[in-house]
């Protein structure tokens, strides 16, 4: 019974050393910092363009729907 305890202990120590080795590798790898993307600017620009040219957008991409919309009553929520 004492032999079984020793093998379990050895496996536990080996596992601990493996985790320690992996964690040290993870924390020693240099981080690559990238410039933050300006997605918000593009998103706002796209929304603004669709709002400004909404009727033309609908006419170009949904020609069957265009005659059924009263564009004088179309409003957009404030962003």
Explained architecture:
With 79 residues, this protein is an all-alpha fold. It is built from three helices and no strands. It has helices at 2-28, 39-52, 54-61. The longest helix is centred in the N-terminal third of the chain and has 27 residues, at 2-28. The protein is elongated and about 70 Å long. It starts with a helix and ends in an 18-residue tail after the last helix. The model has no long low-confidence stretch (mean pLDDT 73).
Alpha-beta content class: mainly alpha
Shape, please?
A: elongated
Task: State the major sheet.
Answer: none
Note the beta-strand portion.
Answer: under 5%
- What is the overall pLDDT average? 73
Order of helices and strands: HHH
Please give the alpha-carbon distance between the first and last residues.
72 Å
How large is the count of helical segments? 3
| Backbone CA Rg | 31 Å
- Percent range for helical residues? 55-70%
Number of separate strands: 0
Secondary structure elements and their pairing?
Layout: H1 2-28, H2 39-52, H3 54-61
What features would you highlight for this structure?
elongated; mainly alpha; 79 residues; 3 helices
Short description:
The protein is mainly alpha-helical and 79 residues long.
């Amino acid at each position: 019974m004492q032999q079984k305890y020793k093998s379990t202990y050895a496996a536990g120590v080996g596992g601990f050393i493996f985790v320690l080795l992996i964690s040290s590798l993870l924390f020693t790898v240099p981080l690559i910092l990238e410039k933050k993307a300006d997605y918000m600017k593009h998103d706002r620009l796209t929304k603004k363009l669709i709002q400004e040219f909404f009727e033309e957008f609908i006419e170009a991409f949904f020609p069957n729907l265009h005659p059924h919309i009263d564009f004088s009553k179309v409003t957009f929520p404030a962003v």
